[in-house]
Amino acid sequence: MKPMLSNNEKTRERRKVMEDRELVELIKASPEEGLNQAMLLYAPFVKGIAIRILSYREERDVQECLSNVFIRLWRYIDNFDEVKGSLKTYIVTISRNEALRILKKSNKYIEDVSLEEVSLGIEVDMTNEVARDINKDIVEKVIDELGEPDRQIFIKRYFWAERVKQIAIELQLEEKFIENRLYLVKKKLKNKLLERGIIL
């Protein structure tokens, strides 16, 4: 059950919805002006997300992410649904997806994941060049096949190194639920890796 909003909070919420609508319509009617306004409002926020996910990368990768996010916002503005969330939430989703796309393109998507930290109970060969390439591909595919919210929880914990408490806050889930899902996902991941013929 959602908490009751005060009259002031309701007013601010309605105002925010109107601001989102106005910006969306501006992007549709005048893309250059609309995107300039969107960047003034959200560029620092988007850059913060890009830096967190692409922390090991060069500044140009962060700038590429920043630029692509607003291009995608323009291309897919018709997909925005204010019923599902605010424009800021929509931009967050685009930002994370774009940053992860750049991360995967860079071939660092799996290499930066410490399988030892994940504690799967198996020793995966990441030293031999051929074995590493095969194993990296298998691990990436298995992680991509995880259902939600398991995939998101796993990536946040082991790719972005977020604490369980922070993940719980972001996904609006209980910490105990997050811990249980991580435990079950690790067991599932181990079995799937062995089934796929991971090189030990």
The average pLDDT is 77
Please report which band the strand proportion falls in: under 5%, 5-15%, 15-25%, 25-35%, 35-45% or over 45%: under 5%
Query: What's the architecture of the largest domain in CATH terms?
Result: Orthogonal Bundle
Q: Which geometry do the CA atoms define?
A: globular
Unreliable spans are: 1-5, 7-11
> What name does CATH use for the topology of the largest domain?
Rna Polymerase Sigma Factor, Chain: A
Query: For the terminal residues, how far apart are their CA atoms?
Result: 49 Å
Number of helical stretches of at least 4 residues: 9
When the domains are counted, the total is 2
Gyration radius from CA atoms, angstroms: 20 Å
- What is the β-strand count? 0
Q: Structural class of the secondary elements? A: mainly alpha
Order of helices and strands: HHHHHHHHH
CATH class of the largest domain: Mainly Alpha
